């Protein structure tokens, strides 16, 4: 009988990740949903959309796979999700405001990959989505992998080198001469640069441009002397250009997208960006009385994205987590993980539960769980398993 009792106890422990949500008031409980669950996939989609929307620099990140998912049901209804996502960057700049699913992935030789941790609150019934914190660490694919599949591909260079700044200026000059814009544009900064030998040296650049006060009705000898328009009215653009030096002449190409600073998102983009998991747009329409009676207190999103320098070492997705203790930009670091592990049966240690004698005015956010989800479905399947990133991922991430 004692043996049978131990077997039954073991079964209860194994089933703890699939236990029903705790009773109201147990705000610190964490569940372990499957990484391939539709609700988790929708939460990951929303988290990545909000991460991209919060950023002002860099490129739109795309989901590669879901590594870990924890869910914390809330007393005020809804759930907080603690997500670890493998990501890759795309060809879209974040200023384009495009959804990540609408952006093309980069070619193998220019791929930048990494991992994001995100804490996001989702309330299906009230159509509320709030990204609380996020932290992402990215790095270019090691050169040895690129050389093994494409030894003649362009080699990344420093965007601040004179040859790339010159290539951007020449590409912009072509744009200014051919575009139908009413004002001249100037180079804001070069965001990516690479070089390849074709019939001669070829320099490829991606760069941001800004609208100036100089009208195209006037002849301007030096665009750099034109003052930029005020930020609230100036248009910003993103360009891709190249300068190929041949034996006799140079070949210049340019392609630019112009973004208005106050250009509103389309109705379709607004609906897609705010779509909460498990609900259609029609299902999410709350009545006016519901909307007025429920307005949780939500803090401003805090997050950062760090890009590591190129390396020839074998850097897996998960090993990038070790670099997330430092950050690049000026935003504060989100709360650190607690030393104790959160169990999936709702029990945890060294975590302060909310004071239930006081009214709950918003979701309760815990420090990010130190342990990844123990679910057998995590990490999930890669979205693009056939690419160059396959040897750089691990099936089960090690403990941070």
List the helices and strands and how they pair.
Layout: H1 2-14, H2 38-54, E1 59-73, E2 79-93, E3 112-123, E4 128-140, H3 143-149, E5 155-156, H4 162-178, E6 183-197, E7 201-215, E8 235-245, E9 250-260, H5 267-273, H6 288-293, E10 302-307
Parallel strand pairs: 4-10
Antiparallel strand pairs: 1-2, 2-3, 3-4, 5-6, 6-7, 7-8, 8-9
Question: Tags for this entry?
Answer:
disordered C terminus; 400 residues; five-stranded antiparallel beta sheet; five-stranded mixed beta sheet; alpha+beta; flat; 6 helices; disordered N terminus
Q: Strand share of the residues?
A: 25-35%
Strand order of the largest sheet: 1-2-3-4-10
User: What is the number of helical segments per DSSP (H or I, 4+ residues)?
Assistant: 6
The overall strand count is 10
Unreliable spans: 1-16, 18-27, 264-271, 277-292, 325-342, 346-357, 395-400
SSE arrangement, N to C: HHEEEEHEHEEEEHHE
Rough outline: flat
Radius of gyration from the CA trace? 25 Å
Oligomerization status of the protein chains: single chain
Instruction: Give average pLDDT, whole number.
Output: 78
Biggest beta-sheet profile = 5 strands, mixed
Residue share in helix: 10-25%
Structural class: alpha+beta
End-to-end distance: 40 Å
């Amino acid at each position: 009988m004692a043996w049978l009792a131990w077997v039954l106890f073991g079964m209860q422990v194994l089933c703890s990740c699939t236990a029903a949500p705790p009773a109201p008031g147990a705000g610190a409980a964490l569940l372990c949903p499957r990484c391939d669950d539709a609700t988790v996939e929708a939460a990951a989609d929303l988290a990545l959309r909000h991460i991209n929307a919060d950023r002002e620099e860099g490129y739109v990140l795309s989901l590669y796979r879901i590594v870990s998912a924890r869910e914390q049901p809330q007393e005020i209804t809804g759930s907080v999700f603690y997500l670890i996502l493998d990501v890759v960057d795309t060809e879209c700049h974040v200023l384009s405001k495009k959804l990540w699913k609408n952006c093309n992935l980069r070619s193998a030789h220019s791929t930048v990959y990494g991992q994001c941790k995100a804490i996001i609150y989702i309330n299906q019934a009230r159509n509320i989505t709030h990204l609380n914190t996020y932290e992402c660490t990215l790095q270019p694919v090691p050169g040895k992998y690129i050389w093994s599949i494409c030894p003649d591909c362009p080699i990344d260079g420093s965007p601040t080198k004179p040859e790339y700044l010159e290539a951007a200026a020449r590409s912009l000059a072509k744009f200014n001469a051919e575009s139908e814009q009413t004002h001249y544009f100037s180079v804001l900064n070069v965001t990516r640069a690479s070089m390849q030998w074709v019939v001669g040296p070829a320099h490829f650049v991606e760069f941001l441009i800004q609208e100036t006060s100089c009208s195209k009705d006037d002849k301007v000898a030096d665009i750099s002397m034109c003052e930029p328009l005020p930020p609230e009215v100036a248009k910003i653009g993103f360009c891709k250009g190249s300068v190929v030096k041949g034996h006799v002449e140079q070949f210049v190409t340019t392609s630019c997208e112009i973004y208005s600073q106050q250009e509103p998102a389309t109705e379709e983009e607004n609906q897609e960006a705010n779509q909460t998991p498990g609900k259609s747009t029609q299902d999410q329409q709350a009545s006016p009385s519901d909307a007025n009676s429920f307005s949780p207190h939500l803090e401003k999103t805090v997050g950062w994205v760090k890009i590591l320098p190129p390396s020839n070492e074998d850097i897996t997705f998960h090993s990038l987590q070790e670099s997330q203790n430092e950050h690049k930009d000026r935003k504060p670091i989100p709360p650190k993980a607690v030393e104790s592990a959160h169990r999936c049966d709702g029990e945890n240690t060294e975590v302060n539960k909310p004071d239930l004698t006081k009214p709950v005015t918003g979701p309760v956010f815990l420090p990010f769980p130190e342990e990844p989800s123990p679910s057998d479905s995590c990490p999930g399947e890669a979205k693009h398993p056939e690419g160059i990133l396959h040897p750089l991922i691990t099936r089960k991430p090690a403990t941070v």
